[in-house]
Structure formats: structure tokens, C-alpha cells
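Forwarding the complex inputs:
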Amino acid sequence: MNTTDAPVRPEPAVAKTLSAQPYMWPYHGCLDPARTALVACVDRKWRAPVPDSDERDSRLGQIAGAVRASGGFVVALTATTGPPVGRRPALRVFQETALPDTVLAVLDPDAALEAGATNGFYSSRLDDVLRANGRTDIIVAGWGLEGPVHSTLRAANDRGYECLLVADASTPLDPDLVFGSCEMVRFSGGIFGAFAGTADVVAAFGGDPATT
Amino acid sequence: MTVDTVAADRRVDAKPYAWPYDGSLVPERTALICIDWQVDFCGPGGYVDRMGYDLSLTRAGLEPTARVLAAFRSWGGKVIHTREGHRPDLSDCPPNKLWRSKQIGAGIGDPGPAGRILVRGEPGWEIVPEVAPVEGELIVDKPGKGAFYATDLDLLLRLGGVTHIVFTGITTDVCVHTTMRDANDRGYECLLLTDCTGATDPGNYAAALKMVTMQGGVFGAIAPSSALLEVIAVPASSVTL
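Prediction (whole assembly, two chains):
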């Protein structure tokens, strides 16, 4: 994870860091779209029907737009269906709506990848795709805050990626676990990285924070 | 297992379902994985102590884990211990992990009362005596939080014929959760013992347990160690091998 040779970016103006907890992200102090990727977890099984899920989807789209407009990379991540055959009953599959296609259209991903399980690095090309495209700093958000989002964040962190969780652009299965999902990142000086709100992310990448 | 095996239906009174799902709890296919019971996480002068967290929270599970270890060894299940730590030159430590640890005053590799923090071979890296490995038990050294990444754990489990895993260890929301998630992803049937684990924060401990039980047991199940002991203490006379 080389911290040097960060190119000077043209418009939109990108900040050096973005406001996050427990530290200004990324840790190396050189936010650079050319080395940043949004990993959007968009597996339908995990899109729980919480009351504000539409707003959360909208924020995910805003981050994708800001990241892409500044030169960043967007990955849409899904997973193969269900647990292994013969195991306990499969997860309840949340009702499919027209939303997924809409969301994917908004994301307009540079790569659409399928993982073998909840952790997006398991049985997928995610690590290869991120490396091949020079992406060292990863923003993780999407459906299943406590599921694919957290599992993928944890796996990315172990692999040395500098990670940012955006909880308000993620859909929880249980709204009571949003706080804990962020606290788990914050403890021990940012044990899995940092977390931030969508408005701060969009603003840092030169987007208009007023739209969030 | 062979087709003519007649195994009693054995399940632990767990949440959100009686574990394991298949009622097939036998020592030949079950591992007890004890995560990171190291001085660095629950001993004086180690990494967690240096960060200023309350050691009683991460030490709370030691006594129940020692009881489970004794029962599990008698039962005949496979015991595996993990340790988090880095090479002395820190060449396997991601620079952001190093930076964060220094920011909070517990720099990886820095000298302390228990030796260099989170470095292999140092006193702080050792497993505490209460739950120390005995001769013949496997130990997996890992550079990260998850015990499957950059280790031979999956190979050891496969070659050992393990399909079911019982977890103890610290900390609940970090290394235990990451490893349990990844074990579940690989198809292992997982149980976390609630009194044999602890976190640096009670809220994170509670949230981590609740996450396991979402959606009918998205990552497996949870139970107090007493519920497991009730089952594995029963003589396995009904199992024909």
C-alpha cells in the first residue's frame, strides 16, 4: 500500500481527507479517487424492508456518483444464493422489487462481481479486480449492514485495504444494530478502519453535499 | 460417518435454534476453536491493557472456557487455538493497522511490560495459562482478525474431518466474529459460547451476539457453556463407529 506518487487530480476538487470516526480518512492523508473504490453490496437477499431503505439506497447512489465523477472505481457485489445445501433453512429472501435494477443503473458499476458467500472476498474476483485497478482505499456500503457489508469490510481490512464504512448508505437487517455496527469499527483506534456519513463522503469527492 | 452409524440426536439448547441444525454432534467431527486467549488481549501490560480498556471484560470468559476445554478434551473433540501476532520485523503488518495502534498508544512492535506488542514470540503473544494448549493440540498463528485469512486453518479442519465448530475467545466483536462469519461462509456449522467470550465494550459484545441470531441464525447459533456441557458430558455409548 504505497502512500506516495499520488497524482494531482483535475476537477472536481477532492479533499485531502474526509471527516470520519475515529480518524480523518484515509489514514495516509491523501484521498485519491485513482486509488479509491466503492464496494457496493447489492445482493437482494439482504435488502431488508426497513422504513427508510429508499433513502439509504439514494445515498448509496450519491456516493457512487461522486466517486465515479472524480475518477473512482465502483464495484457492485452480489452473492450466490443461500447457505450450502442441507444446512439449516435458507435466509428469508426479501421480496424483490423493481428497485435493484434501478439501483444498479444508478451505480453504473465498473465491475459487477459475484461472491460465494457473505464475505465478498470469498470465492470471488474482488481482490484481483481491486488490485488490478490499483485500488487500496475501499468505501463499503449497501444492503446488509451487519451481513455482507461488515463481513466484506472485515476481510478487506485484514488484507491491508484502508476501509471506510458508510452506515447511512447501508441497509440494516435490524435498525437497533446500526449503532453497534459503527462502534465495532470505531473501537481500538479504528480496528476495521473508520466510518462516515454520506454527506461527508460526497463533499470530500467534490460532489454537492446539499444534495444529500 | 458411515451409513450404519446410529447416532442419537444431540442438540444444544441454543438460540435461535437447537444446535447443530442436523442433530449430529459427535467428537469426531467437532472442533473447539479458542480464539486469541493471549496476554495481549486479556493480560496485564498487553495490547488491550495498553489501550486502556477494562481487562475484566476480556478475562470474564476464562474460567468457563477452562471448564469447557476440560470437558471437550474428555469428550474427544479436536481443540484448536489461535494467536494473533506479527513477525518481529512487522513485514506482515499492514501499515494502516500499525498507524492506528500507534495513534491509540499501543503501537504494534513497541516495547511494553509484556514485551513487544502483538509480536510473535514475545511474552504478550503467549496464551494465558488458564486456557493454555496441551500437547497435541493445534495452534494457528494469524496476522489478521479472521483466522482463515493467510493461515492453514481451513486445511486443518478439512483434513481433520471437522464439520461443526464451537467458538470461545476474545474479542467477541472482532476476531471471534470475523472468524465465525468466515467459517459459516465455508459451510461449517457454528456455535458461539456466550459466557466464554468477551469484548472491550459491553455494547459491542451484546451487538455481536445479536448479529449471530439474526434471520434464524445467519452466522450460526449462541448458547451458554452450560448448555453445551449438558450434552457433551453424556457418554457417547449410542454412537457406533
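Residues 27-232 of chain B form a domain with the Rossmann fold fold (CATH 3.40.50.850).
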